[in-house]
Structure prediction request, 256 residues.
Amino acid sequence: MALISLDNVSKIYPKGTRPALDDINLDIERGDFVFLVGASGSGKTTLLSLLLREEEATSGTAEKVSFGSMLKRPYFALGVLAEFIFIGLQVAGMSLFSTFAMQQWPGMTAGTAAAYLSILSLLFTVGRFVSTPIMAKVDAGKLLGVYMTASAVLFFVAFLGLGPVSVIAMIVSYLFVSIGYPVVFSLTLTGFQGSAVKTGSSALVMSIVGAALSPLVMSAVADAAGINVALLLAVPGFLYVAWYGLFGSKLGLERK
Prediction:
């Protein structure tokens, strides 16, 4: 995991006739041994002063990057949690769908339920393609908030156990679920550059462990209290992701 990142860093002293450092890019990974050599006046001392925070860069960013330091930015920490919750709910809903559909729709066979699951998956794909050009014109956080709120409402309709209506509601919900993963991913990495993006991306990719844990939890709840109650658990989860898109993704951005 990268520890130090310099992105397009320049340093010009107030009375300097030329830059002490000019558009420097440098990533130092954990465990690297780095030797700094150069002629007198080449900027070695200035570079070290920037890394030690004794001087501020005139332009660009020079920072020590670690997962711990990134977590100090609220929108990043909240985003990793949002991704963990979202991907878990997405997978858990799909895993419970066929059983739920057969319970709610009289006479539905396993084969028909599988066909409806295919329709659900198709809507998931269509939703992502249709929403991509919309995001070019609409704030991604706001769109995420609207889509996740719609998903929460539709999952609540599913929880109500209204027969075929609840089944259709759950199918349609995946039209809105579709954009969750990439949009949360993008919002969480806002304001990061260079190696920090790699570090943040690694954390977000690891958040897919939610896809393994959430189905286990929701299946256990379904066995103990019924599949409708298990689906109800998704409602606050989607509402949290909606809140993140509308508000949480902006907390701490002034520190970027």
